[in-house]
Task: inverse folding
């Protein structure tokens, strides 16, 4: 088998052929699927190995002291031979991986061959195709958790143990210094615990990433931004805890910790940074300095790690193994998101070149994974992962009588509702705005005053329980759409819900269960672009297709301001989960079909996405969803190409169709619209109100709404698994 090794004397890195380890009692043999490069600890080792002998000595004074002691005891010649022999040997790299159990040793009964496990330890979770791992250094991966995410288990346990040492409590404020891999995980763990987090790092990209993942504010420790944020969040008292997750030789982190920590606060050292504590500063505040020892209790104890002797849970609640299992559970439940941390996935065969790129700075990364050949077949990833496209049988209900006027209720009255929906509805004949429900009384009163609702309330039942209301608009934050839609359908209402319909497969299944239970399939999702007059005319000019088409859709989504709730991925889903349904629906409408598979790739941090959709007739659509483009470029541009024809849409301002005829090349070009682009909201609302008034079919079939939602969900599944996702329809 192959294993990554390093010669500490020469600095040589190699992918070496070594014997397969035996499966000893008390452990399991694991075939690696993914292993994680610690861009802090491992790169420090790689860099040290490339130093001169004097540089190595300066970087490891602790080892120099041992050499001096050995000289005093054994003499210079013997010590020299011992040191050179040790330096001129290959040493392993790696300590965090996920793989499949290939063989179970005697005494192991908690896992079986074929189980997916996360493994820890710098002697047992190495960058190697196979590892023997003792019982207390592996944990079974929860169902549904992607192997590439489970590979973060060990590093996540280090961050988790550091947070435990800080003893954070709800409502406290913490400062995380150093926003590398460990720091980013500490930020998320603290935020998930109800702690307000400020981050400090000189890298603006890492600061922005930490803010997206839950930090209240981040900035360069040398600027005033961090101190200002701490003062605002703590009323000038200082933070309750400081987590030192930085490396290097600067003493700035411990000095900043003393300056920004409150009286009798806690300073927790997780990384390996310089610790020349300024005595006066730490004494005057009586700061509690704590160290976090790697993955947790059991680390460096051979009886625990090698012999499998567990500590009683009544005395040691969180051991190495329990921390590992806990972190995997947090990731599986979506409380910690490691996908944005993945900067690069490299084939294991390219391991040496990957390390060199990291060391030389050509590859800038937060986290890098090795992917092992053949892992797909072992972990079930050889088959394309599937997202279910559920179907539902609805019993035909009684014919709906015509409604005049149509009485509408609104749940939510935020920016989109008040700028893009309600202005159109107030101008439409035969519509009565009955009741608006919001979470705050003032926003309901404002909507009532501005748009003429008969009632304004914070009581949801005032809409769902009012039998005189014909249709309900759900225009709240993304996380509540599915549940409110489900309740409204069960209440017998026709429902208009803004995108997205659901953020998870379970939420989508819950909506369709309500449809089946109630027999009420009167549902519309706010996919408005297919109703845009300009795009509808362009599609008509393009005409019917005879062959497969290619569609390219560029969405220049742009940067969101700090603090936007769209950035709260933990609760509101990713930006694409919230907005991507618009573009998938538009593509499917133009291609007159629903997609059968999805493949998604992303830049580091998932800022820019490429989503590739395949359709039953061989047509394909590529959606480029980017947030890093220029704000001066149009937001949406689209090209549809088939049968010698090209349809071009320029940001809902102008459209054109190019085609060949017997008379030669021809082109239709629309007149340029004013800057107030019509993206179809008015026509969409007209179609919805007509369906409610007449009892006729909904503007978009339920099957299409479900297929678009399932395809949107499949994007995240594809990003997690790194493979095409099949959209499996139930028969």
Result:
């Amino acid at each position: 088998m192959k294993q990554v090794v390093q010669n500490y004397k020469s600095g040589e890195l190699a992918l070496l052929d070594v014997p397969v380890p035996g499966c000893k009692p008390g452990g399991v043999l694991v075939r690696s699927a993914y292993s994680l490069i610690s861009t802090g600890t491992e790169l420090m080792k790689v860099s040290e190995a490339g130093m001169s002998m004097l540089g190595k000595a300066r970087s490891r004074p602790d080892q120099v002291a041992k050499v001096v002691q050995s000289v005093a005891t054994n003499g210079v010649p013997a010590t020299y031979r011992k040191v050179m022999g040790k330096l001129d040997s290959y040493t392993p790299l790696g300590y965090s991986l996920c793989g499949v159990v290939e063989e179970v040793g005697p005494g192991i009964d908690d896992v079986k061959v074929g189980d997916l496990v996360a493994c820890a330890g710098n002697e047992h979770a190495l960058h190697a195709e196979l590892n023997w791992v003792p019982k207390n250094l592996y944990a079974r991966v929860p169902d549904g958790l992607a192997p590439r995410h489970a590979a973060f288990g060990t590093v996540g346990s280090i961050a988790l143990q550091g947070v435990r040492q800080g003893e954070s409590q709800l409502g406290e404020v913490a400062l995380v210094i150093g926003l590398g891999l460990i720091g980013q995980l500490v930020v998320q763990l603290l935020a998930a615990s109800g702690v307000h987090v400020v981050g400090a790092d000189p890298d603006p990209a890492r600061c922005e990433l930490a803010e997206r993942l839950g930090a209240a504010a981040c900035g360069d420790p040398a600027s005033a931004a961090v101190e200002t944020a701490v003062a605002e969040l703590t009323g000038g008292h200082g933070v309750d805890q400081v987590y030192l997750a930085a490396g290097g030789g600067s003493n700035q982190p411990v000095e900043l910790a003393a300056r920004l920590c409150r009286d009798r606060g806690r300073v927790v050292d997780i990384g390996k940074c310089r610790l020349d504590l300024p005595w006066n500063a730490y004494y005057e505040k009586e700061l509690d300095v704590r160290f976090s020892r790697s993955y947790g209790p059991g680390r460096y104890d051979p009886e625990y790690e090698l012999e499998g002797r567990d500590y009683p849970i009544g005395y040691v609640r969180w051991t190495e193994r329990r921390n590992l299992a806990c972190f995997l559970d947090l990731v599986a439940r979506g409380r910690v998101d490691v996908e944005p941390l993945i900067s690069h996935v490299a084939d294991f065969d390219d391991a040496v070149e990957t390390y060199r790129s990291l060391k030389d700075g050509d590859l800038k990364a937060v986290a890098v994974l090795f992917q092992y050949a053949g892992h797909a077949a072992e972990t079930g990833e050889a088959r394309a992962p599937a997202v279910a496209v559920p179907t539902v049988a609805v019993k035909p209900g009684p014919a709906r009588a015509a409604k005049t006027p149509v009485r509408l209720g609104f749940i939510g009255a935020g920016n989109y509702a008040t700028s893009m929906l309600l202005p159109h509805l107030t101008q439409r004949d035969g519509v009565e705005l009955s009741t608006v429900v919001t979470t705050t009384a003032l926003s309901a009163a404002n909507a009532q005053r501005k748009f003429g609702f008969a009632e304004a309330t914070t009581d949801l039942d005032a809409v769902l329980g009012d039998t005189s209301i014909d249709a309900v608009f759900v225009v709240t934050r993304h996380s509540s759409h599915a549940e409110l839609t489900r309740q409204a359908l069960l209440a017998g209402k026709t429902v208009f819900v803004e995108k997205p319909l659901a953020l998870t497969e379970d939420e989508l299944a819950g909506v369709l269960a309500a449809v089946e239970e109630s027999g009420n399939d009167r549902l519309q999702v706010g996919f408005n672009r297919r109703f845009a007059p300009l795009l509808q005319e362009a599609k008509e000019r393009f005409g019917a297709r005879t062959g497969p088409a290619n569609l390219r859709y560029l969405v220049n989504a742009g940067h969101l301001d700090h603090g936007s709730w769209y950035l709260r991925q933990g609760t509101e889903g990713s930006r694409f989960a919230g907005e991507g349904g618009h573009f998938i629906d538009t593509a499917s409408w133009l291609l007159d079909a629903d997609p059968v598979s999805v493949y998604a790739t992303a830049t580091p941090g998932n800022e820019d996405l490429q989503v590739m959709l395949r359709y039953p007739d061989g047509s394909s659509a590529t959606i480029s969803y980017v947030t890093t483009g220029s704000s001066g470029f149009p937001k949406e541009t689209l090209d549809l190409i088939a049968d010698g024809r090209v349809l071009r849409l320029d940001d809902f301002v102008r459209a054109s169709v190019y085609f060949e005829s017997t008379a030669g090349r021809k082109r239709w070009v629309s007149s340029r619209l004013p800057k107030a682009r019509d993206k179809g909201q008015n026509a969409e609302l007209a179609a919805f109100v007509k369906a409610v008034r007449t009892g006729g079919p909904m503007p978009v079939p339920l099957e299409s709404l479900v297929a678009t939602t399932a395809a949107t969900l499949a994007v995240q599944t594809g990003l997690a698994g790194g493979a095409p996702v099949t959209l499996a329809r139930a028969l």
